[in-house]
Amino acid sequence: MQGVHIIGTGSYVPKRVLTNFDLEQMIDTSDEWILSRTGIRERCLADKDEAASDMAYQASLVALDDAKVPPGEVDLLVVATVTPDTPFPSTACHLQRHLGASRAAAFDVGAACTGFVYGLSVAEQYLRTGRYRTILVVGVEVLSRIVDWTDRNTCILFGDGAGAAVLQASEDTSRGLLATFLHADGGMADHLIMYGGGSRHPISEEVLHRRLHFLRMRGNETFKIAVRTMIKASLEALDQHGYRVEDVDLFIPHQANGRIVEAVSKRLGIPDEKVFVNIERYGNTSAASIPIALDEALRSGRVKEGDLVLLIGVGAGLTWGSALFRW
Ligand code: COA
């Protein structure tokens, strides 16, 4: 079996920033309420003509440059998103065209906020077995297109962005990606869902009238489940490798809500300096949140060679999972 290494990362967020104060002008809310309940101050929103593959392209260029890999050497493109450019073909195919990654196979994975961890796990299988050598995994979302901007329960939470990682197989199995763990519980599908636009409720006047083309969330239940599953996902990854919480140098959780991350850290006894948090600036960017955080952690020197790094995802589905690295 081959070792699997992240050899380059990149991220991109749109230029337009929507602050909590801007939201005060749009809905009945306040900066104080949003900040104290979520830890979010602002989020970035895509331009009208900016689609998922455009943002994925920007993040991918940075990641490929960081990895010193030309697009033509990529064997597979995996894009995690719930806000694709088009229902079909996949956003990965649109990205392949933008990049000119002509020899790469391309497909999307749909695991909502856990999408990037799912994408890493898919890539891991192809790389370990030697089927492919170089894989680009991207998490990208344009959630601003499916958020109901009149619903104060949800619109304050989400933002747009993209993050990318270039993974490569190598003989070195002593470090790199140690393992990924994936889970799902479809029994909780209704907790966070967009009902309209699929084959059950195709776009129609009725769907638009009932506002089914926007995401819906049961905030309170989702909050509690997110805390529980993130703890489970963290402990599973560590237990299976004989590590304890204190062995981890950096936790990079999905940036769902600052209070969720705080609750997980508190219950696991993780000190603040070992948890990467950037939700203040981006909100919840779903599949993009972990790769943006990972890219920022690497670029700001928060990860050193030899560090144990744990990525933890949770999202709609319900889906959850983790990826453990020895950097
Ligand atoms: N501004 C001001 N008040 C708001 C508000 C807003 N943006 N949104 C809701 N409220 C009000 C509610 O109407 C409610 O008022 P009421 O008591 O008069 O009915 C009150 O604030 C409390 O609402 P509640 O839903 O209990 O707040 P909360 O503390 O649970 O916070 C969330 C709401 C959405 C921030 C929180 O539940 C959450 O983050 N859930 C998880 C979401 C998530 O992470 N999803 C993605 C998972 S991958």
Please specify the SSE layout and strand pairing:
Layout: E1 3-12, E2 16-19, H1 20-24, H2 31-38, E3 42-45, H3 52-67, E4 76-80, H4 91-99, E5 105-109, H5 115-128, E6 134-142, E7 160-170, E8 176-184, E9 192-193, H6 205-209, E10 216-217, H7 219-240, E11 250-253, H8 258-268, H9 279-282, H10 289-299, E12 308-315, E13 319-326
Parallel strand pairs: 4-5, 4-6, 11-12
Antiparallel strand pairs: 1-7, 2-3, 6-7, 8-13, 9-10, 12-13
Helix pairs in contact: 3-4, 7-8
Bound molecules: coenzyme A.
Tell me about this structure.
The chain has helices at 20-24, 31-38, 52-67, 91-99, 115-128, 205-209, 219-240, 258-268, 279-282, 289-299; strands spanning 3-12, 16-19, 42-45, 76-80, 105-109, 134-142, 160-170, 176-184, 192-193, 216-217, 250-253, 308-315, 319-326. It has 10 helices and 13 strands. Helix 3 (52-67) crosses helix 4 (91-99) and helix 7 packs across helix 8. It has a 5-stranded mixed β-sheet, sandwiched between helices. A 4-stranded mixed β-sheet has the order 8-13-12-11, with helices on both faces. It has a two-stranded antiparallel ribbon with strand order 2-3. The protein has 2 domains: 3-174, 3-Layer(aba) Sandwich (Peroxisomal Thiolase, Chain A, domain 1), CATH 3.40.47; 177-326, 3-Layer(aba) Sandwich (Peroxisomal Thiolase, Chain A, domain 1), CATH 3.40.47. The protein is α/β, with parallel strands linked by helices. Helix content is 32%, strand content 25%. The longest helix is centred in the last third of the chain and has 22 residues, at 219-240. The protein binds coenzyme A.
